[in-house]
Hints:
This protein has helices at about 5-25, 40-50, 75-80, 115-125, 155-160, 190-195; strands spanning about 90-95, 100-105, 115, 130-135, 145-155, 165, 170-175, 185-190, 205-210, 210-215, 225, 240-245, 265-270, 275, 285-290, 300-305, 325, 325, 365-370, 380-385, 410-415.
Amino acid sequence: MTPETLEIHRRRTRRFFMQCGVAGIIAMESHPLLGQNSVSNQTLDEAIDGIESWLTRQDEFRDISRGNPLPHELPEAEKKDVGLSRETWKLEIVSDEDDPSRLRNPLTKETGTALDFNQLVELGKTHAVRFPKVMSCLNIGCPLGMGIWEGVPLRKLVWMTQPVNNLRRVFYDGYHNEDPSQLFRSSLSVNRILEDPTDLPPVIVCYKLNGQWLTSERGGPVRMVVPEAYGFKSIKWLNRIVLSNISHANDTYAKQNNDLDSPIKTFCNLFPTGTSYAANTPIALTGWAQVGRAGLDKVQVWIHPNNAALPEEDKYFKTAPWRDAKILGPPKAWGGDLPDGKIVIPTKGFGASGAPEQWPLRLTKAHWATLHPGLKPGKYTIRCRTVDKNQHAQPMPRPFRKSGHAAIQAVNIVVS
C-alpha cells in the first residue's frame, strides 16, 4: 500500500468512525468515546493502515494453479507453440462427440474458423462486459484476489455456432499439457449462459483484469469467469468449449466430493492479529468479508474468556453475545493498478460517476473494523461472523464444507 493510499485510509476511517458515534467506534460494549483518546486513535489508525486495497494487483493474487509443469511457467516460446500467447491463441467451440448438439457452424481449427484473440477483442468493442468479482476457492477460507473482470458474454460465442437443438450442457477446459490426467474441466447449464439470473452479470470469456490484459499466471491470454461461482468454474487458459446434450455436470471437481452448483458464500475472517496484548489497552481488530449472492448486512465479533463455558448445544454460537463491527465504506483509491486509478464506465455495480450504486457490492469483498476498549488479564478466543441480507448468520444457511468454506474463525490471544 502506497503512502498516499495509507493517508486516504487514515482520513476516511477516522471520519467514518467519528460519524458513527459511540456505537460505531466501540461495537463490542458500552464505553466512553475512545475516539477522543489519541492512543486509541493511533491504535485504530495503525490497524486501518494495514488493510489491503479493495482490488488486487494481478501479481498479488494467491495462485492455486494446477498442472505439471504449471502452464504459466512454460518458456515463452513454448507458450506460443501451444496457444498460450495472444498472438497464437485459438478457441474451438464444437459439438460433443458422445452426446452431440446439432450445430450449423462449429468453430474449429481444422476448418480455420476457430476464434482468435483479435477477433475476440473486436467483439468486445461492442459487446464487452465488466464486473467486480472476488475470486475464491471452494475449499480455502480466504479470497484469492479481488478484481474487475472484462470480456465477451459466453452466449455471444455460443450463438456464433448456430445451435439448432439438443443443447443442454456446456463444458469447457483449458490448456494443461498433453497429459489427460491433468485436464481440468468445468461445465454450466446452457440456461445459465443464455439467460442471466436477476441482478447477475453474464458468464464471460475474459481477457482483461483491472483494465489490463490477463497475465499468464491469472489464466491469460483468455479464461472463463462465472460471476457467482467459486474459482473452479472460472477455468484458466481457455482453449476449448464443447456443446453437449448431456443432462448433468461433468466437472473435474465432481470426482473430488465437492458441490458443483454452490454459489459463493457470505463469510468473514480477521486479518492477521497479534497473539498477546497488554491488559486494559484498546485492541483494534480488522478483517475482510466475502459478500455472496445473499449480500452482507452485518459483521459481528465476539471475544470469549477461555475459562468461561461456551453456550451449550449451540454448534454455531447463535446465542453468543455477538457485537456489531463496522463495515467500512467504499475506498477513495481502488488499488489493483487500474489505469488512471479509475473504474472504467460502464462497469456493473457502478454509476456514471464511477461511484458504487450500493455498498458493499454482492460477489465482492468488504473490509470491516472495530475497537475494543481492552481486556482483563487472561486467555481469550476472538471469533467473527457475517449476517447476510436474509438474516442468516454464518455459517448458515449452507454450513456444509462441500458447498464452500464458511466456518467461524477462532483466534486465540493472551492478555497480560
